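Researcher: Structure prediction, please.
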Amino acid sequence: MKNNWKPCTILVILLCLVCFGIYSQSNLAVSISSPVLIAISILSGILTGIILNFLFLKLAKNVRSMNFSKLFLMLLTACISSITGGLLSFSISALPGWLGHYGPILIVILIFILSSIIFSYRMEAFIDLANRLTNGKLQISEVAEEHESTALLDTSVIIDGRIADIAHCGFVPGTLIVPNFILQELQFIADSEDAQRRQRGRRGLETLANMQKDKDIAIEIKEFKVPNIREADAKLLHVALELGCPILTNDYNLNKVAELQGVRILNVNDLTNAVKSILLPGEKLIVNVIQEGTEINQGVGYMEDGTMVVVENGRPYLGQEIDVVVTKILQTAAGRMIFARHEKELGVKR
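Model: Predicted structure follows.
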């Protein structure tokens, strides 16, 4: 509101002058003295200006989050209703008395309000009709804007921290939005009595702070009012459906629920698995065996991208870097596992 005081002041002054002109030209001005007339004009202008300024700010907030198709159809409806009201106002202006003076204005406002109500209740039908008339061109524009506009961040992906590097590299187009209830959940986790949860919450807050400082990342914290819904995940799905934007998350359960509700999910774990090195059985690599495996005589190491490598009969080589040959690759829900053997056991020549 602080940044909008100048437009609000100008609007109030103009409306005061308009109200003064209306009252001075009406029959009411004959029975009212000039000071009282000026006071009535000022009060009417201030009240009307405050109401219109509030409606303007609310409209601007909704338009900012509205996709192109809905905005285009809303403006088209406003134009059609204004033209219709203007045509009707010509005949009404010929009526005698105050009805001829103010009737056209009332007709235009009434038609505009009625068309807005009809559009809001039958918006999806209008969009579907527009898509059919334009052979899908309008729908393509809407999808294109959806991909390049926004994406919602979940608590899990913020705590994970990898989203900061992904966004910094430019793999996430558009603006990242952190809803206010997600930020509140992070603060609640950071204030937890459990040391591990507290550490995870603080790491998430640090990730957000670093992303806000990064000039290459477009991130915003927005307030969304979601009444009658308590859980943060349910609120996030509700907001995603309203905005028509995807959710960035690592939460497996949220992923499945979102699929059932038709919400697009961008899973960081899926992205990580997609960019991992592709190895085939028979290929060689160097592994540092750092711990024992779950089975007898196994050793475990990791590749640079974090992929686990299980070395059969690798326990004697703990703390050593050895040349191994891939024997099997296992894809699990948690990620990719590679099984290998020391090349000496297989008799592989360098």
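Model: Residues 34-64 form the longest helix (31 residues).
Researcher: Thanks, that helps.
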